[in-house]
Every structure is written in structure tokens, then in C-alpha cells.
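U., I forgot to send this yesterday:
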Amino acid sequence: MKRPLEAHLTTVQALFDLYMEELFLEHPSLKGPCAEAAEQVDLSCLKHMQQQMLKAQQNMLATLETNKVLKMMAEFDQKKEAQTPLFKFVRHYMRMVLLTYTFIRATRDGHLSSIDALCKYFFARDKQKYARIVPLYLAEMTTLPVTDPNIHQDGLV
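Result:
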């Protein structure tokens, strides 16, 4: 399972590079601040200094928020998806792969939000078994504090 996941992640990384090139062509003012913040994160990770990494990450988030990058990305997606069905397909693929990685991490951390987000894909891809079982599983896990408080309190789920 590791190799296919790595292949999908590598594909998403390549697609994201192409995506950002197009976004920066449409919004050239974003390239400088985003590149600078990304370089700070990269340098801090290379040095393995935790405090510096946290500071660089906070700076990156502040840069994204200040420049309204997520809003611009959403508008960019909406515009391009209306123009090109292939773009829409690629963005959905990218989101699904990232959700899959979020789910894998969440299963290790014990969170249910990622499986909730993935649930719609089971219906969309006509995976009847999962489409029936996952909502039931989510409902049982959500009511666990009431139905079985001992298991919930012990953090076994």
C-alpha cells in the first residue's frame, strides 16, 4: 500500500507545482511573499530547530492569511473549473488524495473528521458497502460518550 500512496502523493505534488505556476501568473503579487515564507519554512526544517520551525510555520500562515491566498485560490478554482472540465477533475483528484492522507493520519490519531469528509466519495464512486457502513460507524462513534462512556474516557477509540 505504501508505493501506490507515494505515487499519488508525488503526482499531487507535481500537479500542485503546475497549479501554483498558473495561480502566480494570474496573481503575480502573491509569488514574492509566498516564496519567501516557503523558503523560511524550508530553511528551518533543514536546521531541525523546533522553535524556528514553529515561527516559520506561523509566518507562512500569516502570509497566506494577509494576502488572502486561500480566497484567491478558491476564486481561481471556480473560474478554471467552469472553463475546463479537466481542471475540475484534477483538482478533485488532488483533494481526494489529500483527504486520503488526512484519513490515514487520523486513523493513527483517533479522529473521525477525515472519514466524515471521505464519506461522500464512497457514494460518488458507488462503493455501496462503504457507503452503508461508514455513516453507521460515524454515528456510533459520535454517540460513544453517551452509549459507552468508559471506552470513550479510556481513549480506546
